[in-house]
Amino acid sequence: MDERTALRTLAAELPGAGDDAAVVGAQVVTTDMLHDSTDFPAGTTRYTAGWRAVGASLSDVAAMGADATAAVAAYGAPTLDEDELRAFVGGARDVCESVGAEYVGGDLDTHDEFTVATTAIGDSEDPVLRSGASPGEVVCVTGALGRSAAGLRAFEAGDVERGNDLFRFPPRVASGVALAPYATAMMDSSDGLARSLHQLAEASDCGFAVSWDSLPVHDAVADYAAGDGDEREMAAYFGEDFELVFTVPESDLAAVRAAVPVSVTVVGDVTDDAVVADGDPVPDEGYTHASDE
Amino acid sequence: MDERTALRTLAAELPGAGDDAAVVGAQVVTTDMLHDSTDFPAGTTRYTAGWRAVGASLSDVAAMGADATAAVAAYGAPTLDEDELRAFVGGARDVCESVGAEYVGGDLDTHDEFTVATTAIGDSEDPVLRSGASPGEVVCVTGALGRSAAGLRAFEAGDVERGNDLFRFPPRVASGVALAPYATAMMDSSDGLARSLHQLAEASDCGFAVSWDSLPVHDAVADYAAGDGDEREMAAYFGEDFELVFTVPESDLAAVRAAVPVSVTVVGDVTDDAVVADGDPVPDEGYTHASDE
């Protein structure tokens, strides 16, 4: 069973699962497990790992339109080196502070492989689910796509400092909170835009018609992409970008742009069914390493 | 750096750390990472693993005198087998239901070693810390000690069904809530009674004088212990028992016993300094695998 099938199994067992975070009363809670071999390329500092791991959970809180309040992390490593631990905690704390949340600690475990499990909680009276999109609305993304794909290429090219910089993404908590009154459906782009569209389409029973040229592409992508096809791969399929993908009525766009502190780009329309780009089907592919509830 | 030293480092970095759970507003939050090689003996079912892993976090919530509301788990395994996953979720859900909390899902990860990270949250307006014990009070434990030590021996003896049964301990959430108005200091016995006493002594700047004969020992210990010394090792040092260790004024004992739904045993007195049993120093030893905030 691959992770997608397993997630469906889990969702069937747990009616509350299947969104970026679970709803508990007026709160949301989300957890993620990351580990060395799949999530932290060689050269990733422990500071970056702390920022990124905790940031991934903060992003899930943001994707619900909730205000992140606190995060914890369980840290497993072969040796518990003091400098590495301090660096990790520093990254975890700084990413929390960047969104107004509190990093309140965690657990330590001696583990063969560097493994981090993070949990974030947030407040929301009325969380935004994946299931509210309606045909006629527009689909948008915050910020720019492809940042993590570029970061991975930077690590692979030996540009460790740039890789670390690109991997420390800003979780869109302020944007998520600002979008909550407007967004009809929302999730983050952690599995890639293509998969996000398919997941929103499935949850909302709708389709999407997007235009490849409309995609906001991160500046760093051009430095590493081998042509237009590769650029699209990095921006639309690779994922792990932690931007927000959401739907709104077109009439709310001006208000949305005024409220959200980062750029908002319309990438297409909500339709009755099928996910297409420039008229062609968009394969439901991307980074299948699970990072959702 | 061993886990104890590392936890001290973490506590110094994070003033909120150092208790069984972190306090965030009127809530507590705690996380734990468990994995195959150290926490789940051969024969542990996935149902038991789900119960025990989530139960460990619920126990940390209980140790704060907080009412557990929800838990999540990140599940990492080499293969995501559907039956195993359903069994794990069943155990996680059942242990939550047993304490009136909601299991709201988690994350899945393909991981070389079976690894589980759990997080629980709970409500408390006035959490019980480790730091409030005063000389003249008594120190007590809920239930009976040595259950997990006996469980491990059962697994080692090939009595897999009994091992699983003993490993599915009841988290003392109802007891923790009932104790909150009375307990001056509290933690769980997950590192063993001996270490719990030392940690309470350090946090409260006090000592303890206990009597070995007063310890409530789980019935199953006698089936596996090789003599009195071994029985003490299993009950006082092995840990992983998830009973509550707490201090109260002796004048509150009757009210405590009336309020707490399980047995409460006085094991000794709070003193000015040193941790002794029958007049001899109690070594600060136990299960050093970290499971605290």
From TrEMBL, chains A, B:
<feature type="domain" description="PurM-like N-terminal">
    <location>
        <begin position="18"/>
        <end position="122"/>
    </location>
</feature>
<feature type="binding site">
    <location>
        <position position="130"/>
    </location>
    <ligand>
        <name>ATP</name>
    </ligand>
</feature>
<feature type="domain" description="PurM-like C-terminal">
    <location>
        <begin position="135"/>
        <end position="274"/>
    </location>
</feature>
<feature type="binding site">
    <location>
        <position position="32"/>
    </location>
    <ligand>
        <name>Mg(2+) 2</name>
    </ligand>
</feature>
<feature type="binding site">
    <location>
        <position position="31"/>
    </location>
    <ligand>
        <name>Mg(2+) 1</name>
    </ligand>
</feature>
<dbReference type="Pfam" id="PF02769">
    <property type="entry name" value="AIRS_C"/>
</dbReference>
<feature type="binding site">
    <location>
        <begin position="106"/>
        <end position="107"/>
    </location>
    <ligand>
        <name>ATP</name>
    </ligand>
</feature>
<feature type="binding site">
    <location>
        <position position="20"/>
    </location>
    <ligand>
        <name>Mg(2+) 3</name>
    </ligand>
</feature>
<comment type="pathway">
    <text>Cofactor biosynthesis; thiamine diphosphate biosynthesis; thiamine diphosphate from thiamine phosphate: step 1/1.</text>
</comment>
<keyword id="KW-0067">ATP-binding</keyword>
<keyword id="KW-0784">Thiamine biosynthesis</keyword>
<dbReference type="InterPro" id="IPR036676">
    <property type="entry name" value="PurM-like_C_sf"/>
</dbReference>
<feature type="binding site">
    <location>
        <position position="190"/>
    </location>
    <ligand>
        <name>ATP</name>
    </ligand>
</feature>
<feature type="binding site">
    <location>
        <position position="30"/>
    </location>
    <ligand>
        <name>Mg(2+) 4</name>
    </ligand>
</feature>
<feature type="binding site">
    <location>
        <position position="60"/>
    </location>
    <ligand>
        <name>Mg(2+) 2</name>
    </ligand>
</feature>
<dbReference type="GO" id="GO:0009229">
    <property type="term" value="P:thiamine diphosphate biosynthetic process"/>
</dbReference>
<feature type="binding site">
    <location>
        <position position="39"/>
    </location>
    <ligand>
        <name>substrate</name>
    </ligand>
</feature>
<feature type="binding site">
    <location>
        <position position="188"/>
    </location>
    <ligand>
        <name>Mg(2+) 3</name>
    </ligand>
</feature>
<dbReference type="GO" id="GO:0005524">
    <property type="term" value="F:ATP binding"/>
</dbReference>
<keyword id="KW-0418">Kinase</keyword>
<feature type="binding site">
    <location>
        <position position="60"/>
    </location>
    <ligand>
        <name>Mg(2+) 3</name>
    </ligand>
</feature>
<feature type="binding site">
    <location>
        <position position="191"/>
    </location>
    <ligand>
        <name>Mg(2+) 5</name>
    </ligand>
</feature>
<feature type="binding site">
    <location>
        <position position="20"/>
    </location>
    <ligand>
        <name>Mg(2+) 4</name>
    </ligand>
</feature>
<keyword id="KW-0808">Transferase</keyword>
<feature type="binding site">
    <location>
        <position position="240"/>
    </location>
    <ligand>
        <name>substrate</name>
    </ligand>
</feature>
<feature type="binding site">
    <location>
        <position position="60"/>
    </location>
    <ligand>
        <name>Mg(2+) 4</name>
    </ligand>
</feature>
<feature type="binding site">
    <location>
        <position position="287"/>
    </location>
    <ligand>
        <name>substrate</name>
    </ligand>
</feature>
<keyword id="KW-0547">Nucleotide-binding</keyword>
<comment type="function">
    <text>Catalyzes the ATP-dependent phosphorylation of thiamine-monophosphate (TMP) to form thiamine-pyrophosphate (TPP), the active form of vitamin B1.</text>
</comment>
<comment type="similarity">
    <text>Belongs to the thiamine-monophosphate kinase family.</text>
</comment>
<dbReference type="GO" id="GO:0009030">
    <property type="term" value="F:thiamine-phosphate kinase activity"/>
</dbReference>
<dbReference type="InterPro" id="IPR036921">
    <property type="entry name" value="PurM-like_N_sf"/>
</dbReference>
<dbReference type="InterPro" id="IPR016188">
    <property type="entry name" value="PurM-like_N"/>
</dbReference>
<dbReference type="InterPro" id="IPR006283">
    <property type="entry name" value="ThiL-like"/>
</dbReference>
<feature type="binding site">
    <location>
        <position position="107"/>
    </location>
    <ligand>
        <name>Mg(2+) 1</name>
    </ligand>
</feature>
<keyword id="KW-0460">Magnesium</keyword>
<dbReference type="GO" id="GO:0009228">
    <property type="term" value="P:thiamine biosynthetic process"/>
</dbReference>
<dbReference type="GO" id="GO:0000287">
    <property type="term" value="F:magnesium ion binding"/>
</dbReference>
<feature type="binding site">
    <location>
        <position position="32"/>
    </location>
    <ligand>
        <name>Mg(2+) 1</name>
    </ligand>
</feature>
<dbReference type="InterPro" id="IPR010918">
    <property type="entry name" value="PurM-like_C_dom"/>
</dbReference>
<dbReference type="Pfam" id="PF00586">
    <property type="entry name" value="AIRS"/>
</dbReference>
<keyword id="KW-0479">Metal-binding</keyword>
